[in-house]
Amino acid sequence: MTAHARLSLNQATVKYAPLAEALEVTASAGIASIGLWREPVAEVGLKTAARLVRESGLRVSSLCRGGFFTMPEGPERRVSIAENSRAIEETAVLASAGAAGSSAVLVLVAGGIRSGSTDLIGSRDLVRSALEELAPVAESAGVTLAIEALHPMYVSDRAVVSTLGQALDLAADFDPAVVGVVVDTFHVWWDPAVAASIDRAGREGRIASYQVCDWATPLPADVLLARHYPGDGVIDFGVLTAAVEATDYAGDIEVELFNEQIWADAPATVAGRVVESFDSVVAPHLR
Amino acid sequence: MTAHARLSLNQATVKYAPLAEALEVTASAGIASIGLWREPVAEVGLKTAARLVRESGLRVSSLCRGGFFTMPEGPERRVSIAENSRAIEETAVLASAGAAGSSAVLVLVAGGIRSGSTDLIGSRDLVRSALEELAPVAESAGVTLAIEALHPMYVSDRAVVSTLGQALDLAADFDPAVVGVVVDTFHVWWDPAVAASIDRAGREGRIASYQVCDWATPLPADVLLARHYPGDGVIDFGVLTAAVEATDYAGDIEVELFNEQIWADAPATVAGRVVESFDSVVAPHLR
After folding, report:
1. What's the whole-model pTM score?
2. Is the ipTM beyond the 0.85 threshold?
3. Which residues of chain B make contact with A121, given a CB cutoff of 8 A?
4. For residue A2, is it within any domain?
């Protein structure tokens, strides 16, 4: 089997596979790149994870994830900042272990409004100050922090950064090599300003990751698990992919699916469907 | 019982009450205004509905709802346009039957992407062309069409208009007396641009309705029924209400709740809780 050269399988798509199996399944499906998650890396330990990645011959496209730093100053925030600093180091180690063309990109999910608060605007300020604290750490590690705007339905409990434009505004004060953004079709496709924001992200050199997955309704009871194979929903991957291709982003494109039905399938079956769906609805729009 | 003078009970909040009961419950709770829905009006017929409204002594703050015109030209679209024209006439009749200070405002929900399509951008163009067709009908009836931006989680199956800014862009080509917008806290609170968009809506004279209800997570299995009493969630009604108050909008403020638990309560109980929650978290921010 071979897959499109720019396809990367985000490990969350085969959530229940341990790291070694996820790497094996990815390579067997002919996919040349993988987006890793911290939890399965931690299961085997960073050193072993790096060895497994090196042996796999795969590129590493990103590490998921840091962030969740919308709490005010205090012990809980210190824990979060320390955890993010560790995630930055892990990103550097794993990207070094990956094949040539790997990306030292740490995906950041901002976090929601803290319990008992209604202060959305203040929560966003706390994201900015966390970036100010973490940017020097990332810079010295050679890692790009990639702010991911999440769909507005997650704003209260998951991510107070809801649009690509807002992510770019947050990134604006930093070196693009240190703070970039994720363009995830599921999160941004609805936005009337999405094409303009992708264009801006390109001009500002901020696109650190492009992730594709589809949106379909009705949403499942747990809206976190609403992500579908490209082509199984209503997103126009032509419009969005063309917009990203019009920038100079030429990196890996991850398929990241959170979906109970998909997770219930055998990882090899899932990897095969990822390859097919990518070939069918994303690849035709690539240069 | 008395309620804040600007409070209006949107009839959907007491969904299972027939029109006569909804009017009675509203008046008994000391609320001076009601937002009507077409279905309970149709149950008794427009003529009877107008008489009941007149006898109630209540103001009418809006009629819900028109819209759902994202299908391409053809018989189905003609049915939708005709239905919207009827809704415009009903709005005029019911507002005339209401007490002084009633508003001839028809709330419009755009509609989603038609089945089998991925053409979000084209669907939005179909909203614009429907407005062009309906604006003269509304103008001659003295009715304001109020475009309601719905939360982006409804974009595919409910409303391709997702932000207040987008609603204002759609309205821009029309007379503000004919095409305005709804500001609904539930739908717009997450938007990083919401304060700027409310300010713009004020400057452009477009605010035709202000609706309040709260957002809480986890979302229910049916995300259409996620609306809570003001104060029961995470929305900062101070920030949003102050932004609306800084415009010259001085009309009624509707509480519109879709929520199975609330609907299961007795309508009079619900109306009482609406009064209390409005007094507690919205009224303090009014002039």
Report:
1. 0.96
2. yes
3. 236, 239
4. no
